[in-house]
Amino acid sequence: MQSRIDRHTRLVAWAKITLPIVALAMLSTLFLLSKSVDPIATIPFSESDLADRTQSQQISQPEVFGVTPRGDLISLRAALARQNAEDSALMEAHEVSAKLS
């Protein structure tokens, strides 16, 4: 009986040492073997799109939801929304779709 307890104690003592070392080795290989990503190369916009986007404030793919006084649900979606050039209190949207239910 005593030898079984000693064997279990030794096994736990070795596991407390080896398991963290194995975990550290696995984690370090994860970071060492990962591919590096160039953040400049992953931008999905062309130079002209970036120039247009920096000229004025805009929202890409805005969604607006609301309820009418009768209780009907309204949803508006657009591809792009930006301030009107003549009147900054107005917004203009492109490729608008609306749903009333």
Structural overview:
This protein is an alpha+beta fold and 101 residues long. Helix content is 40%, strand content 25%. It is built from two helices and six strands. The strands form two sheets. Strands 1-4-5 form a three-stranded antiparallel β-sheet, with no helix packed on it. A three-stranded antiparallel β-sheet has the order 2-3-6, with no helix packed on it. The model has no long low-confidence stretch (mean pLDDT 85).
Summary?
This protein has 101 residues and is an alpha+beta fold. Helices cover 40% and strands 25% of the residues.
Write a concise keyword list for the protein shown above.
single chain; 101 residues; alpha+beta; three-stranded antiparallel sheet; 2 helices
Residues in helices, as a percent range: 25-40%
Largest beta sheet, briefly?
3 strands, antiparallel
Strand content: 15-25%
User: What would you report as the Rg, rounded to the nearest angstrom?
Assistant: 30 Å
**Uncertain runs:** none
Strand order of the largest sheet: 1-4-5
Assign the structural class, choosing from mainly alpha, mainly beta, alpha/beta, alpha+beta, or little secondary structure.
Answer: alpha+beta
Distance between the termini: 75 Å
Averaging pLDDT over every residue, what do you get? 85
Count every beta strand, where a strand is a DSSP E run of 2 or more residues: 6
Tally of helical runs: 2
Order of helices and strands: HHEEEEEE
Shape: elongated
